Amino acid sequence: MNKYPILIVAGPSGVGKTAVAKAIIEREPRFTFLRSATTRPMRNDSNTTEYLHVTEEEFLGLVERGEMLEHMVYDGCMYGTPKSEVERAHSEGKIPLLVLDLKGVESLYNNPICHTCAVFIYADPATVEHRLTTREGATEEKVRSRKQRNLEDYMRLPGLSYAFYHMVPNVATLDECRDEVVSLFDSFMRGEPKQADIDAVIAEIAK
Fold first, then answer.
1. Residue-wise pLDDT tens digits, 7-37
2. pTM of the full predicted structure?
3. What is the tally of helices (H) and strands (E) in the chain?
4. Within a 10 A sphere around the Cβ of 115, how many other Cβ atoms?
5. Confidence (pLDDT) at 43
6. Cα(194)–Cα(109) distance, integer angstroms
7. What is the DSSP string of 145-163?
8. Do β-strands 166-169 and 114-122 pair in parallel, antiparallel, or remain unpaired?
9. String of b and e for 95-111 (b: at least 16 CB within 10 Å)?
10. What pLDDT is attached to residue 2?
11. In whole angstroms, what is the distance from residue 37 CA to residue 33 CA?
């Protein structure tokens, strides 16, 4: 069975992982975002290249037939990555780039068609706090909820060390972080061994 190389940028809320992923897409045309399937109603300002809007019945059908590589429920709506999107990207000669949570990283790592290079982006607590509180639409409740999810992610990390290729601190400029992630993917494709040190990262974050 052929395996599809996939670059995954993961990490807790407030570390800038989405900004890093977007910077990679803008600089590196060989990468492409995949559309997520979602049951979320289409909004007036929706970007049609970002989501595949489906009904709940259609979404569950994709899951039952094994056509969804990973999926989750967020704010009452279902989101997931269809296998067809990965196949589409590779048929176009592109490398899929995904921004995922830990559950998504685990699901794709264990999927037999995926050859995943997962890079964990992290930042120190003060930086995360600042980013969460200054984010557009931030409320005290949302910040508290995201910080709780971050704590849960950190607690799960040691059990997922096998799924990550490397850990990257987002403390330099966006361009430098972008270039490091791309360089790591190239190392991954050359077959160089993974370099993720989960314990060291947790110790650094906990300072």
1. 999 988 888 888 999 999 999 999 999 888 9
2. 0.84
3. 8, 9
4. 15
5. 66
6. 14
7. HHHHHHHHHHHHGGGGGGG
8. parallel
9. bbbbbbbbebbbbbbeb
10. 64
11. 13
Residue spans of the domains in the chain: they are 4-32+94-205
Residue indicated by tokens 């590589």: 69
The three-state (H, E, C) secondary structure of 77-107, written as one string: EEEEEEHHHHHHHHHCCCEEEEEECHHHHHH
Strand 4-10 vs strand 114-122: parallel, antiparallel, or unpaired? Answer: parallel
Tokens 């950190």 belong to which residue?
Answer: 154
* Cβ partners under 8 Å of residue 189, min gap 6: 5, 117
Burial status of residue 5 (CB atoms within 10 A of its CB: 0-12, 13-18, 19 or more): middle
Which listed CATH number (3.10.50.40, 3.40.50.300, 3.40.605.10, 3.10.20.740) goes with 4-32+94-205?
A: 3.40.50.300
Structure tokens at 146: 């995201």
